[in-house]
Amino acid sequence: MKKINIAIDGYSSCGKSTIAKQLAKELQYIFIDSGAMYRAITLFFLQKNIAASDIEAIRSEISNIHLHFEFNTTTQKNEVVLNGVNVESQIRNLNISNNVSHYAAIAEIRKLAVAQQQSIGKNKGVVMDGRDIGTEVFPDAELKLFMTATPEVRTERRYKELVATQPDITREEVRKNLEERDYIDSHREISPLRQADDAIVLDNSNLTMDEQLALVKNMVNEKLQ
Ligand code: CDP
Ligand code: CDP
Question: Binding residues for ATP, per the UniProt record (predicted)?
């Protein structure tokens, strides 16, 4: 059966990973959350107290970063392993979220992540979500989606997720983080977040997860014919 790559880009917390995971399960493809790599790299530098502004220190440490993914059969997700340690539970908090876009704007960091992402996708059969998948990582992906939802819906979705493990978190903190990341991600010099010319825009503000899956499955089926 023909295999394709599916690139899913868009703003933070609009449901990219959710649809990517659903699709990968249906199609028996590999799902890669590329943001997890930038989050793990951010964790590495924060642990070493190296600021995103300290480019020299980042250059000299970058060869010490080794990332790979391991499949968690319980969550049905590929989780990121940083230098031998599964860091999935350490990379979703607000501290990482507040720092990640600054590190993700650095050329050396993007080079490391993109090379690994491209190698994972070379044999097709990958659904990857992120910010530059359709424009930079897989410019030849057979299906490209650009997802969006209103800021209010996105804030509410992410707030509900985070408050379960961080009960003190406020909606305002979440909203501010999403707004700041979207701004930095869209305005950075290297591979800014933008819609690929051949991407299909999907606003899922008013769609349930089942509705969005049904819509995207139709798009995939067209590409597989
Ligand atoms: O899930 P959420 O939308 O909160 O973000 P994420 O996908 O985990 O990505 C975290 C951050 O990593 C983004 O805000 C970007 O700064 C960066 N990122 C990127 O630059 N390029 C990608 N392909 C994926 C993520
Ligand atoms: O990957 P991204 O940051 O774009 O978003 P996500 O982590 O896939 O989704 C953020 C939250 O929105 C999750 O808790 C999803 O369950 C929820 N969601 C939803 O409620 N309705 C949708 N149509 C899509 C996602």
Answer: 10-18
